[in-house]
Amino acid sequence: MQAPDWRSAFTLMVEGILQDAADAGAPVPADRVRDVLSAHGSALDACTTASVVHGDLWAGNLFLDSAQRIVGLIDTERTLWGDPLFDLIGADQFGLWNVDPDLLEGNTEHGGILAAELASPTGPTRFALYRLYFSVILVTEISVRDYEGEWVAEHRKSAEGMLAAVLQRFDELAPTNTTTSALGVRESNPQG
């Protein structure tokens, strides 16, 4: 999949997962997702330089040496060229709006741009759009991967609850509002 700009590429990604949801009969409100992307997608135009984004960069996919340096990573099927903020979602796939301040601090200390991008005028909206995308994935993959077991009901409830919460947050916004305070995305303690 390729596109001339990030908004077009992300739109193709969203359409791809919506098609998977439809094919699998997953309970995803596709029209609402498309409406959100249409209303808020202009925020994606701020990403003009693509970065390699792992997309699933949580602790279980990292290998550290005895000095706590990253020496390897696995599970790269979600890797893409895109907005670096996308990696914040993969690092905490069941989170909603709070970003671990230690993650942002460590990224900044080592030359990263995640904190600056999140604090930019379009950062919170981009972050929320990526949270929406991952929420759709989490709901859809239950059907696509035919998950089984006692854990599935609670997992489904969590994934569907996240999707509903993200859509509700967007429902509360005016289409042109991309400020940090409006979206409530902030750098804070995960408990806060």
Q: What is the structure about, briefly put?
A:
This protein has 192 residues and is mainly alpha-helical. The chain has helices at residues 6-24, 30-40, 86-91, 101-109, 114-119, 123-144, 151-171, 180-183; strands spanning 51-53, 62-64, 70-73, 80-82, 98-99, 186-187. It contains eight helices and six strands, in the order H-H-E-E-E-E-H-E-H-H-H-H-H-E.
Can you lay out the helices and strands and say which pair or pack?
Layout: H1 6-24, H2 30-40, E1 51-53, E2 62-64, E3 70-73, E4 80-82, H3 86-91, E5 98-99, H4 101-109, H5 114-119, H6 123-144, H7 151-171, H8 180-183, E6 186-187
Parallel strand pairs: 5-6
Antiparallel strand pairs: 1-4, 2-3
Helix pairs in contact: 1-2, 1-6, 2-6, 6-7
User: Rg from C-alpha positions?
Assistant: 16 Å
Uncertain residue segments = 177-192
Summed over residues and divided by their number, the pLDDT gives a mean of 85
Instruction: Describe the global form.
Output: globular
Rounded to the nearest angstrom, the distance between the terminal CA atoms is: 38 Å
Order of helices and strands: HHEEEEHEHHHHHE
InterPro entries: Aminoglycoside_PTrfase (IPR002575), Kinase-like_dom_sf (IPR011009)
Protein name: Phosphotransferase enzyme family protein
Organism: Microbacterium azadirachtae
Domain Aminoglycoside phosphotransferase: 5-90
